[in-house]
Amino acid sequence: MVVRPPDLSVIIVSLVGGETLARCIERLPLTEVEVVAVLRDAASDAALWARRYPRVRFLPGGDAPVPVRRKRAVEASSGAVVALLEDTSWPERGWCEAIVAAFAGPLIVAAAGPVAIASFLSDRCRALAWIEFGDFAPGSRALAPDRIPANAMAFRRSALVPAMAGDDGLYEDAVCWRLRDRGGTIARVDGMTVTCSACSEESTSLADRVARGRLHGAASPARGLGQRLRAIAGAVGSVFSRTARDIRRASQNDPQSVSLLFIVWLALLESAWAFGAAAGSIAAGRHSPKAIR
């Protein structure tokens, strides 16, 4: 009996749009897979994009956050396997084929591959990329089973839909944890390599890093003076340790890209996240658990 490979839907969430989105689309085999692109904001012209790429389905994004846009696109797609991409990360040759091959057997419920970081990015953008995706650089074995990168991942629909029901959380975190807790296998697939090739202005702002840190810190409320002081001390300590880690990873993978300005941006972005996390933890600790939603 010949086993038919699963149908694949590729969902692209646009963070930058314009030619960045176009370059991402053009790296996909549009005649072989279903492609659904969720545009960046309400001002994006879906009809104009559809005329340029008639094989791609374009959905308006509105002002919804990325997880919500992903969920809408998953519900609008039809493939037995759903791959989630951000337009800032461009798939390498064979990416779709590697996904289909990985899900040919019944055990895999989620998969992802390495994330390379383009050397042509600005120092600020490369700094953010190494912070976000340094764990998943080619050659790293940190991918599975605990984490997968947020910018490029694939799921079996039959497992994903129940796992994301009633939740707009981050798929690389909460949804993957649920899949793993239900006995699913999360796989590293080296053929699923993508290259981080752009970044949005919002994501590299210090204010955005503080806000993201606050969300993370709110999940671990610091109650009482002792816990709050430890949260602050931990934030200060993590800036040095995380920045040193980022420099080491970048130096090992692309030593020519490690400039003084790159290091400064690493320290600034890590500091913003760390102090945001401390503030979020302290603020959450001032409320009862029932008041936190």
Portion in strands:
15-25%
Radius of gyration from CA coordinates: 20 Å
Order of helices and strands: EHEHEHEEHEEHEHHEEHHH
What is the residue-averaged pLDDT? 85
Low-confidence stretches: 287-293
Please give the count of helices: 10
Q: CATH homologous superfamily name of the largest domain?
A: Spore Coat Polysaccharide Biosynthesis Protein SpsA, Chain A
Which oligomeric state applies?
single chain
**Helix proportion of residues, in percent?**
40-55%
CATH C-level of the largest domain:
Alpha Beta
Largest sheet entry? 7 strands, mixed
Which architecture of the largest domain does the CATH hierarchy give at level 2?
Alpha-Beta Complex
Count of folded domains:
2
Q: What is the straight-line distance between the termini? A: 51 Å
Q: What strand order characterises the main sheet?
A: 3-2-1-4-8-6-9
- Tally the beta strands: 10
* Outline type: globular
> Class by helix and strand content?
alpha/beta
The CATH topology of the largest domain corresponds to Spore Coat Polysaccharide Biosynthesis Protein SpsA, Chain A
Question: How would you describe this structure to a colleague?
Answer:
The protein is of the alpha/beta class and 293 residues long. The protein folds into two domains: 8-196, Spore Coat Polysaccharide Biosynthesis Protein SpsA, Chain A (Alpha-Beta Complex); 206-291, no CATH class. Helix content is 45%, strand content 15%. The strands form two sheets. A seven-stranded mixed sheet has the order 3-2-1-4-8-6-9, with helices on both faces. Strands 5-10-7 form a three-stranded mixed sheet. Strand 2, helix 2 (46-52) and strand 3 (56-59) form a beta-alpha-beta unit. Helix 9 (224-253) packs antiparallel against helix 10 (260-285). The longest helix has 30 residues, at 224-253. The chain is globular and about 55 Å long. The protein starts with 7 loop residues before the first strand and ends in an 8-residue tail after the last helix.
